[in-house]
Amino acid sequence: MKLLAKTLQGLEPILEKELLALGATHVETFTRAIRFRGNMETLYRVNLESRVAMRVLMPISSFNARDEEDLYRKVKRIDWSRYMTEEETLAIDGVTNSEVFTHSKYIALKSKDAIVDQFREKTGKRPNVNTASPDLRINIHIYGIEVTVSIDSSGDSLHKRGYRRETLEAPISEVLAAGMILMSGYNGDRTFIDPMCGSGTFLTEAALIASNLPAQMYRKEFGFQRWKNYRPEVYTKIYDEAMAKQRVPSHPILGFDKNFQAINVTERNMEAAGLENIVTAKRRPFERLVPPPGGGILVTNPPYGERLEEEDIEGLYQMIGDQLKKEFKDFDAWLITSNYSALKSVGLRTSARIPMYNGALECRLVKYEMYEGSRKGMAPQTEEDKAASKETDKPEVKEAEQAELKTSDRPKKEIRRPASSSRDFKKPDPRVRKEAASDRSSRSERPERKSFSKRSSSELRKRITKKPPKND
User: How far apart are CA 459 and CA 439, in angstroms?
Assistant: First the structure.
């Protein structure tokens, strides 16, 4: 069957490798998406194990639509009873790049009207809309007049791994973090360091990669688990096979931050994810960081000066460059930023510059290969820098800091399995759910409010197409 996996721009080569490894065939790469073929087991595996897929869609119909009524008729022509019942709920995501269809929400509303009208005419009942946790999530994609109708096998976006308990300001996407780590070539065979770890996203993704565990091991459910043709025995077998591949990481995974709160949040997140025996987090500013000997991989997301305030953003980037040259011999250092001006202050030659997006910000993922010769040509230090450097360079200081990190060299334990996961998912009975909803409604004293999902398409059309008054 035909399938489509969506990803972030710049991660398409990583996703293509993943899909081929997971059994996909007939792979075709597009911008932010890859089309491929596979069976239902492939669909289960890609959702569970891909680290950089955002969604996995299964197209069920393609056609041309000339206008909104044509769209309504052709969506209604699809036999929706194959995918859901009138007792279940739905949600529709509309995406458009068209001069004919210019409002994605209106596309979603017309498609919803077509589906519920089909059920009402056949059964006298209609399914309800549930945008938060639907039984069936539908994707309507329009390019020009070409319409592709798909059902979403992922449910929530796959960047929502389920391990993050607390966050700080401006956290990086889990999918972007995993993609950056995979681009670095990291597979657990070298020391991994994030010197500005924030809430620990890079550390968690690195721990999962080093342990060879599936990206979605913490996830509670997928969209396909509510499908009519879901085979729980097949998915349980795939989940158990993926978890059985676990290995114990052989090298340290270290996170540092100058902020007390960041380290506290990271430690709580690691404990909640069962990673406290895999990841070590310490409060230490980057300029005082002395890594373990032997080289490794450094991946970080420094402030850009966009959302996080930094008094001297160019001074920060200069410090990063100086510290890399001084202490990180035999490391490959990767960082992402949208501040190209500040990036120049690093003062090192890049060996890779990859265009990427972090949310809406256009960024560059850059790589610095640190070797003995890269220490040459360091920027002159101020007297204050020299004093701090002398303090850090004292043998007793370095020995103490190295000894503190030696805990990371002790034998690691396996990651604890989550108490509950998608393996334990049980599809809710829609009849029980409706009875519970009816009971809550009867006990409520508040009058029922008209929901957005029950507004007529003509009402929304009037709001969307209403022309602003002309200026006299």
Answer: 30
Give Cα separations from 112 to 71, 80, 229, 236 (angstroms).
Answer: 11, 11, 22, 33
Q: Is residue 450 scored above 60 in pLDDT?
A: no
Helix (H) or strand (E) holding 40: helix 40-49
| Contacts for 138 with CB less than 8 Å, ≥ 6 apart | 90, 91, 92, 93, 111, 115, 149, 150, 151, 152
Torsion sign across C-alpha atoms 208, 214, 217, 223 = positive
198: left (phi over 0), alpha (psi -120 to 50) or beta: left
Pairing of strands 296-300, 191-194: parallel
| Domain 2-158, second-level architecture | 2-Layer Sandwich (3.30)
pLDDT at 388 over 50: no
Token digits for 317? 């980037």
Which stretch of DSSP H or E encloses residue 36? strand 33-37
Predicted confidence band at 415 (pLDDT cuts at 50, 70, 90)?
confident
The third-level CATH classification (topology) of the domain covering 174-217+242-409 is Rossmann fold (3.40.50)
Please give the sequence-ordered ranges of beta strands (E in DSSP) within 123-249, or none if there are none: 128-129, 136-143, 146-152, 191-194
Distance between CA atoms of 238 and 44, rounded to whole angstroms?
8
Percent of the chain with pLDDT over 70: 81
Domain ranges of the chain: 2-158, 174-217+242-409
**Three-state SS string across 355-423, please?**
EEEECCEEEEEEEEECCHHHHCCCCCCCHHHHHHHHHHHCHHHHHHHHHHHHHHHCCCCCCCCCCCCHH
What is the strand order of the sheet 55-64 is part of? 25-30, 33-37, 2-6, 55-64, 146-152, 136-143, 89-97, 128-129
Amino acid at 333: A
Q: Taking the model in full, what pTM does it have?
A: 0.84
